[in-house]
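Reopening this one. Same input as before:
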Amino acid sequence: MNARIAALMVAAAGIMAATVAPASAATVTAGGTPSVTNGAGGVSCTTVLNQPCVWQEKDGGGGVVGVAQVSADPGQLTIVKVEVRTQRAWGSPWLPAASATTVTKGSAKAVTPRVVTSDLKMVCATAGPALEAGQQVTTCTYPF
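Same output, byte for byte:
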């Protein structure tokens, strides 16, 4: 009986880590690197090659858009994917509500369509070299 309870606790901890870890990866910093301001909402991003900077912007219609940008070498084929995810109830899965993808040489930016919902929201982005999936990095905002 104790083994079953222990196994259940390990499974619950694994599920908790899988859902909390993306939200806790919201800030990516590196010492000595300059910051960049997105120009719209004053969000400051640390400039690290192939590390996405992600944020949300509220629009006048009561919705939000997800925005992500990534700095890259000018000759690199770069991908940036951004999603606005929603969660209807605590413990339910995060579901994509809107997404956008940009593939270009050098630095890139992507903006999702507007999402209007009262559900909990989170913006996640994946960015990096388009031809090397193992070097792409995913980061998310905290739920809002």
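So the earlier flakiness isn't reproducible anymore. For the record, DSSP finds one helix and nine strands in the chain.
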